[in-house]
Write a structure and sequence with these properties.
The protein is about 50% helix and about 5% strand. By secondary structure, the protein is mainly α. Strand 1 and strand 2 form a beta hairpin. The chain starts with 16 loop residues before the first strand and ends with a helix.
Length: about 210
């Protein structure tokens, strides 16, 4: 390091050096010759840190070659970059896989919704047809009996109108109105009449409607 020297006596080698908290490098002889707890260059209150390999990293980096520091820092930066890129790739792969699963679920739900909509449409059409049929039946029920479609009139049979006569027009059928036709032969009847007594013939003639 060509720039390294004591800021007071300007020697570069052959002594132990220290750096003050105010940023000045002094050799051991210059430090002893200056006032205690004060910088031998600017006179400010300070502390001295020995320049050795045991220095803290944040203090040691001020005495490193800038190129080496840049390379080491660049390597560190590359490590950090690789680490972050790997994490980003894992995150991207996770969300990509999640997106594929969500798209699959969305497709299934969409197809199921289409099937349900088609089924509901069919049910709606069936309900509409049933409703129209019920409305037709209700309309038929609201009409008078003679105006209903498909129900023949009580006075019609096979398209021919029947005329129902009043009951009073047809003469009542009684026992006296029936015509009694003789069932016996004349000879047999005479034989039977001849066998009966005169009193029985008179009784039978009294009950006959023709006498």
């Amino acid at each position: 390091m060509e720039w390294f020297h004591c800021n007071k006596c300007f020697i570069r080698r052959g002594s132990t050096f220290a750096v003050s908290t105010c940023g000045h490098i002094c050799c051991e002889a210059c430090i002893k010759s200056s006032q205690a707890a004060k910088c031998g260059i600017c006179g400010a209150s300070c502390k001295y840190i020995p320049i050795t390999d045991k220095m803290k990293p944040q203090d040691k980096m001020f005495f490193m070659d800038p190129v080496e520091l840049l390379v080491s820092r660049l390597e560190r930066v590359l490590q950090i970059t690789d680490f972050q890129r790997a994490q980003m790739e894992r995150t991207t792969a996770y969300f990509k896989h999640k997106s594929v699963e969500l798209e699959k679920c969305l497709k299934e739900v969409t197809q199921q919704s289409y099937r349900q909509i088609a089924e509901l449409k069919r049910e709606n059409a069936d309900l509409k047809s049933q409703n129209m049929e019920l409305q037709r039946e209700m309309a038929q029920l609201k009409k008078p009996l003679s105006q209903r479609v498909g129900s023949p009139s009580p006075f019609q049979t096979n398209g021919v109108r029947r005329i129902s006569l009043p009951v009073a027009v047809t003469p009542p059928v009684t026992a006296h109105s029936r015509t009694i036709s003789p069932m016996w032969p004349r000879n047999r009847g005479l034989g039977l009449a001849s066998r009966r007594s005169p009193g029985s013939i008179t009784s039978l003639s009294s009950h006959s409607p023709f006498l």
